Amino acid sequence: xxxxxxxxxxxxxxxxxxxxxxxxxxxxxxxxxxxxxxxxxxxxxxxxxxxxxxxxxxxxxxxxxxxxxxxxxxxxxxxxxxxxxxxxxxxxxxxxxxxxxxxxxxxxxxxxxxxxxxxxxxxxxxxxxxxxxxxxxxxxxxxxxxxxxxxxxxxxxxxxxxxxxxxxxxxxxxxxxxxxxxxxxxxxxxxxxxxxxxxxxxxxxxxxxxxxxxxxxxxxxxxxxxxxxxxxxxxxxxxxxxxxxxxxxxxxxxxxxxxxxxxxxxxxxxxxxxxxxxxxxxxxxxxxxxxxxxxxxxxxxxxxxxxxxxxxxxxxxxxxxxxxxxxxxxxxxxxxxxxxxxxxxxxxxxxxxxxxxxxxxxxxxxxxxxxxxxxxxxxxxxxxxxxxxxxxxxxxxxxxxxxxxxxxxxxxxxxxxxxxxxxxxxxxxxxxxxxxxxxxxxxxxxxxxxxxxxxxxxxxxxxxxxxxxxxxxxxxxxxxxxxxxxxxxxxxxxxxxxxxxxxxxxxxxxxxxxxxxxxxxxxxxxxxxxxxxxxxxxxxxxxxxxxxxxxxxxxxxxxxxxxxxxxxxxxxxxxxxxxxxxxxxxxxxxxxxxxxxxxxxxxxxxxxxxxxxxxx
Length: 616
Ligand code: ADP
What we know:
The longest helix is centred in the middle third of the chain and has 55 residues, at 255-309. The protein is elongated. Helices cover 65% and strands 10% of the residues. Helix 7 (150-195) runs antiparallel to helix 8. Strand 1 (376-385) and strand 2 (391-401) form a beta hairpin. It has a six-stranded mixed sheet with strand order 6-7-8-3-9-10, sandwiched between helices. A four-stranded antiparallel sheet has the order 2-1-4-5, with helices on one face. It has helices at 2-18, 23-45, 47-55, 59-62, 74-88, 92-142, 150-195, 197-203, 206-244, 246-251, 255-309, 314-355, 416-422, 446-451, 467-471, 480-489, 493-498, 516-530, 546-560, 572-577, 595-599, 605-614, and strands at residues 376-385, 391-401, 405-409, 431-436, 439-440, 453-456, 534-538, 564-568, 580-585, 588-593. The protein has 22 helices and ten strands. By secondary structure, it is of the alpha/beta class. Residues 386, 389, 392, 410, 412-418 line the site of adenosine-5'-diphosphate.
């Protein structure tokens, strides 16, 4: 309980921190709220002299109806008398006209202030939300690859989209409702006290009950909120996974299975949200019922004051009722706002969880930029395990001289991809070191390191953009002839020229409008344009048709020319061309040499793999 409070408080402070850039707007909004509340009080209070004009013309010349003996301070009573006296001066019709005009002006100003206040607050709130989304997005991109497991993607999207929206309601709830409603309540209370303190005290009997209800609901909801948002994240995760993998779902006839899974998630969400609403929805009827009890007591006791004791005039009593019933909506608003703030703080917690993940792979301070790759890339006794999992690589030592082609072969799951992922520091070794020209990768500027490395994987990632921008991805303001030259080298120019808008053709999301071979050639053109000295290549295992295969192979050969390449090999031509082949099995190097040397061992793993994978 205590730690929950501490946590809520720290979340609250961080949310306040987000509002800092907009403090001018927010302060102006708060000041306007004060004026709004005062004018709201005045606009209600004005009905008392109005009633007096209509029902008590005898009071007109006598001046104010105020009761200076109320003990609220002579200043306030004096002011009230002066103001009401001035309003009621002169003839009945003059006063009527005067009060009508004053009512119009009061309401006009009140609404103008109210509008400006909302406008400023909305501006601030929406801007804060935008800033927050941008911050999370920027932060997400600073996180290491290990953070982005497939299951996490949907959850991440849900936090950026849905949790941030929930927070949205909370900020305005805090600054608008939490400022405006208590102020309104205070203004109405002062007015009510000035009319009759006895009646006011009786009306206030309901307050403690209402507060108790609010507190109970807030506490009960605190935990439920997190659950609901997690259920929503589950839904988003399933959506993301099955929509992006819709082809597999269809191919395996899993539509019904996936739908059932989805239905289970939406049912869990429904349960959770209904639980919340059940609790939340009690607050309104309960507070209303309490108000009605209070209201009846007030009418009864007020009636006695007017009719029997004559300590209150009828118009004052009516005014009092007006005022006291104006207090109820702000109280109800406050119960709702407590809920919304609960919701927002649960969402904020989930958002801050992401923001608080430290980027573990970063450029350390004082790191040197890698200006050139001049001699070698070396793995020195490298071991690696994915977060908390078992060891995937053990004692990997290998050296690649500039200009060499090194091939990695081994059964699936041996650790080949993991080895190459360590070169651009997608992960850091758990033990040992990787050195480039004798310098530890961790002592180098990360951006300058990745600039020297080109990666072509089996899965070609294309963005929903023009062909030109996909090829020139990461190269700012690339001249058109360079893009074209790269496309020609990658054997892609021909098919690009045949598309409707040539280089300006927008490819669909994930490049679905292109064939497998075409997509690979675009990815190769992208690598060629980047022109990195080091190339990491994961050769495609899936077969293309012969013509496409030839075009892709030719493009790969051209790309490799003059570069240092590390290839996860699946093609005969690659292993024959490699200056050195490393055979990987269960995370260890179990053989190394040229093709001719390795094939000589008739019982070796290489020979087996060769017979299985390459010879055909
Ligand atoms: P290969 O490329 O040789 O097929 P990988 O390097 O992809 O092998 O995988 C090596 C081992 O590491 C496998 O057992 C695989 O299950 C595991 N692995 C791969 N990626 C991850 C990951 N992101 N988290 C945990 N384990 C992983």
